[in-house]
Amino acid sequence: MENTPPFSSIFDHITSHINLNQQDKELFTSVLRVRKVKRRQLLEQPGFISGHRTYVVTGAFRAYFVGTDGQEHTLSLAVDNWMIGDPGSFLLQEPATLFVEALEDSTVIQWTYESEQMLVEKIPHFSVAMMRRAQQIAVMIQRRVVSLLSLTAEERYEEFAQTYPVFVQRIPLYVIASYLGMTREFLSKIRNQRTAPKK
Fold this sequence. Notes:
Layout: H1 7-15, H2 22-31, E1 33-37, E2 42-44, E3 52-58, E4 61-66, E5 72-78, E6 83-84, H3 87-92, E7 99-102, E8 106-112, H4 113-122, H5 126-150, H6 153-163, H7 165-170, H8 173-180, H9 184-195
Antiparallel strand pairs: 1-8, 2-7, 3-6, 3-8, 4-5, 4-7
């Protein structure tokens, strides 16, 4: 069972960072749980402690918070073979500040905080995979902050579309606008200008 769908994709994800022997794979498999998630269903929400890591097998998600002005601000996105969650809540085991919402009917693989602590103890290099994933997220956040502070709205969308074409295809326009820090109407105008035939 250890390397059959849907577990094959999570093993590919983890072994891109570390090597797992057969015993490691069996132990990891023993803590994994497959979950079906409906569109618009929440996996996490503010006030509740994040109890799971979430790996997306198929589907699309966003993590966002609601500002004091009532506006939604999207912090991260995920589609097939990505991970999504409120990392601060999971790692510190404190109440979440983010909503994690399914944008499509999705299938995810999850494991609990307690399971991860056990995996780190039993498979010491498992923590390396999680650390490298955290480093990737940190780099993405840094690049996004620099983009928000230094690029025009048009340049931000162009960079986003070139870097993450799958998000442009799968993620709703209002969510992309929220992620890029602009209104849906303004993003729609930018996209229309990009696709308009040149005179």
